[in-house]
Amino acid sequence: MAVPILRASIPQLHPPLHFLCSTPPGIGTSKKRSFLFCVPSELSPVRSEVSFCVGTHLIPHPNKVDTGGEDAFFVSSLHPGVIAVADGVSGWAEQNVDPSLFPQELMANVYYLAGDEEVNNDPQILIRKAHAATSSIGSATVIAAILEKSGVLRIANVGDCGLRVIREGRVVCSTSPQEHYFDCPYQLSSQATGQTYLDAMVSSVELIEGDTIVMGSDGLFDNVFDNEIVSTIARYKDVVEAAKALANLASSHSLDSNFDSPYALEARARGFDVPTWKKIIGMKLTGGKPDDITVIVGQVVSA
């Protein structure tokens, strides 16, 4: 079966269908800790069947527009509903390896294996099987989430791609990046030295109708604060427009040398800053982080 690999910086609306896309990598949020928090719903979780309506938007790194970048993502709103993002590690280019091939094949394998009986709606097992089936040289961070009809969203994350669940104007569930040290995230790899599915941060959250899921490569979260994500989502009823707005905001911030971005805040917290003489005159390290930006926005609806 041929798997569609698309390279386009355009929004996509996903009714019940399978969709696989090659896109650009991104940036992560505060990379200090590796944890996930989920606030229990104060409302009754969904008991009837649910699904999601999904919109996507991707913007390549300014220097990678011609090649489409090194991210890949997969969306399926068929049961089980699956969304996933893989962010290729660009350093492989220094070894004459195309960094986009590994994440593309990884997501192609997610496509083939999402309905596998052994996966059984477990994103960690899906990552294991997809990684084992990937033969390309390279590495990638990856996040996968499966929405069960009962309303339970199951999440597995290796590295610094991220996910937020927004409910009634606040973030009620948030992943945080896993990293070896600043700007070096956990990653699945073709080499034995990389991480595996066993290193994934795994969790689940009960969703209710009206919740919004925001998933992205670190290009989104390194450049856009959570409160900006919440306020942007609130302005749009259409998931395609919401995804486009978030990607455009991340892109704008990433190119703004004066913006005090999540990435810059974390860098300073880790001891990276301007020289001492600049600090004396009141200067500090600021700016966004140019990167590939992948955004998936899902609205939880009754099936």
Structure notes:
This protein is α+β, with helices and mostly antiparallel strands and 303 residues long. It is 21% helix and 31% strand. It is built from 7 helices and 17 strands. The strands form 3 sheets. Strands 1, 3, 6, 7, 8, 9, 14 and 15 form an 8-stranded mixed beta sheet that branches. A 7-stranded antiparallel beta sheet has the order 2-5-17-16-10-11-4. Helix 1 (101-113) packs across helix 2 (123-132). The model is unreliable at 1-18 and 22-47 (pLDDT under 50).
* Unreliable segments of 5+ consecutive residues: 1-18, 22-47
DSSP strand tally: 17
> How does the major sheet shape up?
8 strands, mixed
What structural class should be given to the helix and strand makeup?
alpha+beta
Strand content: 25-35%
The secondary-structure element order is EEEEEEEHHEEEEEEEEEHHHHHE
The portion of residues assigned to helices is: 10-25%
Please tell me how large the radius of gyration is. 18 Å
Question: What shape does the CA trace take?
Answer: globular
Give the averaged pLDDT, no decimals.
85
Number of helices, counting only DSSP H or I runs of 4 residues or more: 7
Distance between the termini: 28 Å
